[in-house]
Amino acid sequence: MTGESRPGGEAVLLRSPDGGMRLDYFLAQELGQGRAHARQLILDGLVQIGGEPALRPAAVVPRDLDIRVAPRAKTASPVPLASPRVLYDDRFLVVVEKPAGVVVHPAPGHHGPTLVDALGRIGGAWSSRGGDERPGIVHRLDKGTSGLLALARTDQAHESLARQLRERTMGREYWALVSGGFTEERGRVDAAVGRDAKRPGRMAVTAEGRASSTEFYVTERLPEHTALRLRLLSGRTHQIRVHLAYIGRPIVGDGLYSTHAASATRPALHAAMLHLRHPESGAEMVFCSPLPADLQQLRDQLGGVGAVVWPWQELEDAVW
Fold first, then answer.
1. What is the reported pTM?
2. Do residues 275 and 231 make contact, with C-beta atoms less than 8 angstroms apart?
């Protein structure tokens, strides 16, 4: 091996083993930085085998070929994040609003500040179930998506919230603004979502993916766009963005999954409602997050009229 595996350094050159080893395991062993790190390098398109891009972390490494791991581009010094808005906080559970543009936790493809960095300013203990890099983190939102996140202060709370996610008893609903119109008032997209074999870093509807379902409800019809309320019935990476692009109604401003001219600086997607049971008491809790100013302004520019009304507000007031 030559070079060092660090951002902005030299490329790492490796010689493939005798064969039979998974690529992510091989890189983790050679680079000494863990399989998650190796996997992200592959998905970010930074790994080549014999001069060709490596597309799958699970690919078996062929014999006697050069493997090149490209360095990451250097980034500017990070700007500290402001503390997220806290909607609820006790000894077990914290609910916050994540601003758009903020990554939830450290990852190989991101070297700037994260939501985790801001948790210290909230204070108190956090669950250790996610490891040192993900204290308290039970679920996540994409960098460009704003809205609600539940955080765990204890390991027991983490296990409870994670179970609610697995069993689909934690309700998560989103507001989105998409290109085009709908003849129906509601619908459902059932399409398996998995990694895009042709474009690392993207997801796609693919036969090799995992079963995924998203319900949608039309809340507002604009001249050339539609506002939707979306309910996750599964929790795949980029699920809403992939499903809406798949049916030809991509989210406004989503440069990764849309070929339409961007009308926004980020995807017009907001995690607007979170419904869960308190991990200690079992009490039913509903949280609502109003539309951020940038999305409100975008909606108004595209023909929206009046205020956005959340269908869950009455339930939120009644439950906690």
1. 0.74
2. no
Options 142, 196, 254, 294, the catalytic residue? 142
317 in active site: no
Question: Mean pLDDT across the chain, nearest whole number?
Answer: 84
pLDDT tens-digit profile of 161-216? 999 999 999 999 999 999 999 999 999 999 999 988 887 678 999 998 999 999 99
